[in-house]
């Protein structure tokens, strides 16, 4: 697996898991693998999920940039 494919895959996973966790938290449901985040409080949990989404988008963007392709 190339480095670009790996970064794209990790980026998509972070984005999808973070986005699904954010949407589910709006209706009061939690993903079991991220339930430990709720021990830090609601704000910290929300910010961590938001950071997951943003980092996922950034990784996808970086992996698709021409400078990284070299």
Measured distance between first and last alpha carbons: 16 Å
Question: How many structural units, i.e. domains?
Answer: 1
Rg over CA atoms: 14 Å
Strand content: under 5%
Main sheet overview: none
Helix content: over 70%
Report the average pLDDT across residues: 90
Number of helices: 3
What order do the SSEs take from the amino end to the carboxyl end, as H and E? Answer: HHH
Structural class: mainly alpha
Explain the overall architecture.
This protein has one domain (3-69). Helix 1 runs antiparallel to helix 2. With 70 residues, the protein is mainly alpha-helical. 16% of the residues are buried. The protein is built from three helices and no strands.
In short:
The chain has helices at 3-26, 42-64, 66-69. The protein is mainly alpha-helical. The longest helix is centred in the N-terminal third of the chain and has 24 residues, at 3-26.
